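FW: tagging you since you asked about this chain on Friday. Here's the raw sequence from the shared folder, copied in full. Didn't touch anything.
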Amino acid sequence: MDTIAVNRYAQALFDTARARGEEQKIRDDISLLGRVFKASGLEAFFESPRFSYESKRKVVDEICKKSSSGIIARFLGLLLLKSRAGLLPQIALKYEELFKASKGITTCEVFLAVEPSKELSASIREHLERITGGDVEMNIHTNEKILGGVEIRIAHRMIDVSFLSGLNNLTESLEFVKVT
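HL: got it, structure written out here
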C-alpha cells in the first residue's frame, strides 16, 4: 500500500468536502464504497493490470450512477485516471480518521472479560471522555483471557488494569524474591 498516496488523496477529499460543508455526506459515501470495494473484490479488480482502463471506467461509471455525490464521482474518476482506484478502501479509512479528528472524536478499544452492562459502559465512556478531553467512540470487545478488569487502547496508549496483568506482575515480582 502506498501510504503517502492514501494520505494525500484522503486529505484532498476531506478538504474538498469541508469546503462544501459535506464532510458527513462524503464520509457516509466513501465509507460505504470502501466496504463494497473490499468485500466484492473490486479492490483487486482495479489493482489488476489484466483489466483494461475501459472496463474499469465502465465499473466506475456504474458506481457513479448510484452515488448522489458529484464529489465522489469526480474523485473516483481521478483515482481511476491515476491508477489508484484500488486504494479506495484505505483512503476511506484515512478519511474516517480525518473526519473524527476534525470533530474531536477519539476511538477507544475496550476489552473486558464479559459483556458489560449499560451502566458499566456508560461509566467507562464517562471516564474515557475525561481522559481524552472530548467525545469517544468505544469499540467494546470481550476477551475471557483477561479474567476481569479492563484493557483500554487509545491511539498508541494502553491502559491495562486487567486481572491477568496483575497476576503477571505479581508472578514477575515473586520471581525476584529469595526464599531463605
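FW: The radius of gyration is 22 Å.
HL: agreed, and Residues 108 and 155 are 7 Å apart (CA to CA).
FW: great, closing this out.
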